[in-house]
Amino acid sequence: MSIVLLAACGSQQDSANGFAPELKVKKATIQKSMPGAHSNLRSTDIYKIEISGDMPLPTKFDSLLVDDVRLPIASIKVDTMRTTTTLNASGEVDKLVLTAQRHFYNEEGPQVVEEVEYEKSGLSLDNSGVLMYRSGGQHYRLEIDKFEKLDRINNP
Known about the structure:
It is a single chain. The protein is mainly β. The chain has one domain (3-144). Helices cover 0% and strands 58% of the residues. The protein contains no helices and 13 strands. Strands 1, 2, 3, 4, 5, 6, 7, 8, 9, 10, 11, 12 and 13 form a 13-stranded mixed sheet that branches. It is elongated, with a radius of gyration of 17 Å. It starts with a strand and ends with a strand.
């Protein structure tokens, strides 16, 4: 799934394309969600990254690298509007929340949820991550130093 955020031109210079996004991580969390009974899904780790900054050119958020895998971005939310499509916004974004999920499965039990095979990232990250994105034809990465662990969700 691809998310594209369109933004107005800014002034940050980049030697490769004339503009570079200036993004910073405001908050990064991980929360484990436990499913109800009778499922091959053992748990889901929900990653949320809140960022802010200036995105002078169209920006596409590709994936989140955590542990040793590459997770697709599941959703994007700007302020109070959630979208998985193209969004027109100003260059300065105060609150952009990206969500990615990683499912873990039981080897036994009924196949209720189709298993997802995650692409290996080639990295070994422990409670940190890397957000991969593109802007103006250039590839960028935003380092996430640490994920704050939230209380577990137990679903009935």
